[in-house]
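haha ok so turns out i had the wrong file open the whole time. this is the CORRECT one, sorry everyone. sequence first:
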Amino acid sequence: MEILAIDIGFGFTKATNGNRSLVFKSLLGEATDIQFKGGILGETSQDENIHIEVDGKSYFVGEMAERQSNVRSFTLDQSQFFNSYAKPLALAAAARLVGNYMPIGLVTGLPIGYYRDYRESLVKVLQGDHKVTLTSLNGKREEKVIKINEVKVIPQPFGSLFNLMLNDLGELGEKRYLQEKIGIIDVGFKTADFTVADKMRYSERGSRTTDTGISRAFGMIAGKLREKSNVSVEIYRLYDAVERGMIKIRGKEYDLKAPTEMIFGQLATAIANEVDRLWSDDWDIDTIVITGGGGTALARQLQPLINGNVVTVDGSTDSRLCNVKGYWKYGKHIWARGVPLTVPAAEATQPQKQ
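then structure:
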């Protein structure tokens, strides 16, 4: 059985089969007929040109949707996201990474606060045989059957912990995490997840999901741009601009460095205050891990505000992949090695929504 991990995020969908990883924006678009395909001076990456048919509907996905679709769909509403977006986004990733009719064991995750409400429905949506059609840039159609035999859903932040403690064979590498009390701050696009694992035992008291993801900062930046330019910039189009520190709108450049610094600082303060309140009784935490794409973006402002031994993701790696790589290692551990981890994740844990 092939092991696949998919992290279906509000901002990006991330996936890996252990050999290759894939990241694309969680954006669906209406598929249209394109007269000229490919790059003007050469071919573009296939991962930037995802055209998939699922359940009789044809979608452009990610960069392809942003670039080509007249009608684009993007949401931060969790009910709409898991009911309408999760399946096509997950299958778009799976179709790129697994073979036709190949039995698959899939590991995915949910934010702590959504786990109880959406775990069973997510398993139901993803498990089973799925007929999909991929269309390449040259118009060639490839029909595939994605056979997902088993689905494991774990609380999202534990992906980063598994990534730290397991090696690529699914074996325990950093055994100290089994004996320590670990706090995890996982800042994603919409949500920030906080959880505590005490010798790998889940702490309900120390776990919560809030809406203090990086999208809150992007929304404030978009608001300031609208005041200055009279143009409403979609928040999913701000990723590269914020990283560059500049955006050009109708030929005029707008500096983003100063407002980003101020707004990221405010968001970091809000997250640090939440940590202080949530973990006030957990003064014996050994290590605090800051993870997630938003965690890396905020690390410089956030780390000095957190009291304790703080570990951040290596800047040379794509922090958006921390959870999904951990999902894959967990799948390797339970399916390839057949030895279950005694962890608070997976089916036994059903944290309350905060």
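The longest helix spans residues 257-278.
again sry for the mixup
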